[in-house]
Amino acid sequence: MTESIEGAVGLPVAAEAVEAARTLGEAGALARRDELVPAIRRANEQYYVADAPALTDAEYDRLMRELVAIETAFPGLVTADSPTQRVGAAPTGAFGEVVHGRPMLSLGNVFDEDELRGFDARVRRGLGLAPAPEDAPELRYVAELKIDGLAISLRYERGRFVQGATRGDGTTGEDVTANLKTVSVLPARLREPVSVEVRGEVYMPKAEFARINAEREEAGLPTYANPRNSGAGSLRQQDARVTASRRLSSWSYQLIEDGADGRPSVASQSEALARLSALGFPVNPDRSESLDIDGVIAFLETWSEKRHDLPYETDGVVVKVDRYDQQARLGMVARAPRWAIAYKFPPEQVETVLEDIVPYVGRTGTLTPVAHMRPAKVAGSTVARATLHNLDEVRRKDLRIGDWIVLQKAGDVIPEVVRSIPERRTGAEREFDMPAACPVCGTAVVRDEGAVRHYCPNPQCPARLSQEFAHFAGRGGMDIEGAGWAVLEQLLERGLVRTRGDFYRLSVDDLESLDRFARKSAENLKASIDKSRRRPLARVLNSLGIPQVGESTAIDLASWVVSRWPAEGIEAGEWFGTVARELPSVTAQELREVPGIGPVVAAAIARYFAAPETAAVLSDLVDAGVVAVPPAVRVAPGNGDTGPLAGKTLVVTGSLAGFDRAQAEEAIRAAGGKAAGSVSRNTSYLVAGESAGSKLARATELGVPVVDEDGFRRLLAGDEP
User: Fold this and answer.
1) Is 639 part of a structural domain of the chain?
2) Its pTM surpasses 0.85
3) Fewer CB atoms near the end CB (10 Å): N or C, the chain?
């Protein structure tokens, strides 16, 4: 059994690690410390400030534990600015600073059952309790899933949210109040007019991480590494509208609220969680209370597997002494409380063989190298493919065809090749290079100057066309139900569809000629195509596959378009014809007026619209009778007193006759409300159409008002439902 002790700096450390440090001698330990400290500082900057860690959690923890061992063996080497004495990294200066009333401390880590039992033994010694758990029934723990996100502090005065901050270096954080207001699960007003500070974690749900990465990959942008970095980066955006578009979520886990006598309003962590929930904060239901150490171990064993089924990323379990009086007796160390510990799940990584690297051509022409691997099971599913993003990434990770590699899932969602294993090479491995010609059409491949992208410049490349047309007809675009890959391939192969407008020129007879199509199925697809002929402008823009434009940017772009070319009093089809003729002349400078669009994106959009083929696409759609419906004039951001839905949060579920999901959410935003993706206690209304499922059940459970489509229309008009 590994003996875990409390080190000189107050953090747990294995006794044999301390002995190993002593064998270095003080001079050797000093030299090693001087290597570790800058490496850990760099890692902290990359993780907490840049939101782009270069080390895995396991690698970082190994360095930190080695430093703790050295400082325990040689206490004279501990300095005030050692990473063991600090939390996170200093604020960047991009936001205002917030000095925390109480330090936001980090937690010590344990990695196996023996170390967790060592923590329990130290707690019992610190409280003067019997060494055997069964003889100390007054000691109980709360076990909570550890959220891999960004720590935040929320301050409320008389029930109103007034300030939100990041942890920063533990003493001073960054003021991200405006961005936190966009996180729909966090209450703007509490259920009681109390003044409290609440701490928790903001995170990006796995589904949102996958959605954003798919959107970025389609737009030819670099994908994000994992939900933690994506969530942290989203919260620390200079433009709160960018944060709002990322659909972040949060769990709350610490309450700082003093009663009239100056003492905490609750006596334990379990009471604090119940109090947080009663005030309207999101509190993770996947926790367990009143546990002895055996119960804690059973909890973490259960969740070591079940965690893969969660909609968010968790990297461990936080174990806390429940009673506040016992926490106070145990006290703190420089960096962490003695009454809490984080058990870290071992990283789920497997080794497999990289059998090939195959470049795939996307709808923008980008050639993306994809790893073809010997199938391996990781994080609950079998994986045989993983994107390698670009040639620079292949080189950075030193990947060769035939290599043994380390594979994991970023955020338990996206397969990721972590690194190669050079020591297992036989000499038969081959380096990969991008082909000189497109593997589909044979056109010479171009590399963007100063960028990592290789692409096929041929706009008629079959691979590009099939991807572009699939995006055009798919969800988020024109949403032509029934136009899947099998149908699309036949339409292209037979020459029935050569342009986007050709979808709307198809006859029932054309469709009936497709393999496995009877008259009824052809009529159904034709009806679906005709239904898609009239779509919101944002959906039409998104369907075009404009470089660096996804759904949220398309919505902002559509609002800018209608402000530039007003649609009032003009028939929608005529208005779209005008817009189609004018868009090719817009400049990058003019596009800088669009909220959230910077110079690089503005230049890319301007180039796209100025291209002759874009003008031909827009003219073709107008000629085919496509109608882009102008958006309603949107309420100015931040104007919380304007619009019939100002201050309200709505969730849409099920099928509505007069709206698709995007149209309904756009209508909510246009009316001054907030469109959320999940139901919480802060949801003002659930809009439920046909086939409403789990969201309806959740709303009923929480007592959230439910309205049908007619009620929704009344809300939009400012009437009571």
Assistant:
1) no
2) no
3) N
